[in-house]
Amino acid sequence: MSTFLGMPSAPPRGTGNLRGTEPFPAAARDELGNTQLRRNVGKATRTIRDKRLAVTGELPDWEQLRSAGAAIKRDVLARLPELLEQFEQAVPARGGTVHWARDAAEANAIVTRLVRATGSDEVLKVKSMATQEIGLNEHLASSGIHAVETDLAELIVQLGDDRPSHILVPAIHRNRAEIREIFLRTMPDVDPELDDDPRHLAEAARRFLRERFMRAEVAISGANFGIAETGTTSVVESEGNGRMCLTMPRTLITVMGLEKLLPSFADLEVFLQLLPRSSTGERMNPYTSMWTGVTDGDGPQEFHLVLLDNGRTAALADQVGREALHCIRCSACLNVCPVYERTGGHAYGSTYPGPIGAVLSPQLAGMHTGPDDPNAALPYASSLCGACFDACPVKIDIPSLLVELRHQHVEQAGVSAESAAMKAASAVMSSAPRFSTAQRAAALNPSASAGT
């Protein structure tokens, strides 16, 4: 990439909820002591894992689909500036407005300004990893705007004053009894006799949300995909709450990461087969919503698209690490990871947990802000078993990326006791005479060689 006068020497890193408050080993130790969490997460991941294996096994061309998805993602990153410009032109041509945000602060400021312009002090939200990443709900609250999560699992997390612990199922660490307690404690006008039957819990949430759907003037969504050639944006979901948010309010604001682009509508065919099978273990998503700009008299009459960088350009600049930007947020890697299954998502600190989070968070936010940067521990939060690579629908080689990040961490960390010892060992073992001398010395002093 060419560098011109006035350009930063390196792309800026991301900000927001991309870094925990303590290193992974310390956080994981606390989570391992929570037996209920381990039981909840273990049961849920096993169920989703079994469903995924069943539906992917039905397709004789599953591996070809994975290869096609990986090839499309490589093409997107190779042509990203061109595709972004095409997308930027296509959205306004169909009545939408495009905004660019270089980091979390800019994105939050843009969304807040747009909501204030409508005069509304309440917004509905479709589940969105990008808005969690930038801490949008907290920023809106500081400006007197209440964001209501409409995805059931996100609503549980919000009402429980909790944090998401899974990319797809944010409340995976909660069981039915805990959800019932949260609803009874925080949901107004809930039936005091509410039990923990899933149907009754869902009905309580439906009644709570229905009034808000009817009165909302503004909705905020993420995006699973954006189509460069048409300016179309797409959200896939399982509950219908997304469809309500995307069609009923007058104003729709979508926050989308730069990497979510696809070149053409034909490319969407591949990902609408890969994503549901890899995420929920379904053959197709129950609700697939697509919108192209604004249609007079039908749906939102104002559409704003916020294109979010927040460290993605920095990740793109890494010739090896850029592969993490292929991620389609399916969570298949989390469901097969032995580390995640035992610690859950909170131990990772970032919005993005699990194997892909251990790669993506350091790529977006960096891992060298100080000697005790929590992100520096994330590349080591893996056994390198390779199950995540086998499960990934776009063939992201997560184990290799983790090894590369470990290499980068060691190079950046400079001299340490470990690196000095390895350097000394390398010097000894690279020379036959020195190695023989070391062997003789070890024979003369067995206690030293035994480490006592």
What does it look like?
The chain is 50% helix and 11% strand. With 452 residues, it is α/β, with parallel strands linked by helices. Strands 1-10-7-4-2-3 form a 6-stranded parallel β-sheet, sandwiched between helices. Strands 8-5-6-9 form a 4-stranded mixed β-sheet. Helix 16 (354-365) crosses helix 18 (398-413). The termini are far apart.
List keywords for this structure.
50% helix, 452 residues, alpha/beta, 21 helices, 4-stranded mixed beta sheet, 6-stranded parallel beta sheet
Number of helical segments with 4 or more residues: 21
Number of strands: 10
Oligomer class: single chain
- Shape, principal axes of CA atoms: globular
Give Rg in angstroms: 24 Å
- Tell me the strand percentage band: 5-15%
Largest sheet: 6 strands, parallel
Distance between the termini: 54 Å
Helix content: 40-55%
> Averaged pLDDT, please?
93
Strand arrangement in the largest pleated sheet: 1-10-7-4-2-3
Parts with pLDDT < 50 across at least 5 consecutive residues: none
Structural class: alpha/beta
What is the fold's blueprint, element by element?
Layout: H1 24-32, H2 35-56, H3 62-78, H4 80-93, E1 97-101, H5 104-118, E2 122-125, H6 129-134, H7 136-142, E3 146-149, H8 152-159, H9 176-186, H10 198-215, E4 218-221, E5 225-227, E6 232-237, H11 241-247, E7 251-257, E8 261-262, H12 265-279, E9 287-292, E10 302-308, H13 312-316, H14 332-336, H15 338-343, H16 354-365, H17 387-391, H18 398-413, H19 417-429, H20 432-444, H21 446-449
Helix pairs in contact: 3-12, 9-10, 16-18
